[in-house]
Amino acid sequence: MQKPEKKKCEKIVFFCCVSGRVCYLLFMTETQSTTTIDCNATAEFIIAQLNGATIRYTTNKGCNVRNFRVVNVEVVGFSKKGNRRFVNVLCEDIDDADEKKNRTLHVEGIELAK
Description:
Layout: E1 5-19, E2 22-36, H1 43-50, E3 54-58, E4 65-78, E5 85-93, E6 99-106, E7 110-113
Antiparallel strand pairs: 1-2, 2-7, 3-4, 3-7, 4-5, 5-6
């Protein structure tokens, strides 16, 4: 069984404190551990990694990030155009009040949140 690749994400948090007329802008970095899934892993491995997991999904263009809690992985396959690995999942959209939705996600855009 393949081991997932781990990487660190830097998140910058901004705080602004107003004291009289002076405004202080504080920068704080928070390191979060995430795990990516190998696109060449077996379907069984991908299903085992995703079922019940909280994930961060970055779209193809990299400009939109969504957070989901995977309820069930329904399909693991390869796209006809581009031969990219994808999963069809039933998930709770954390960014949309935990509404349950069906989503098709490319595996390379998925990070398992820790």
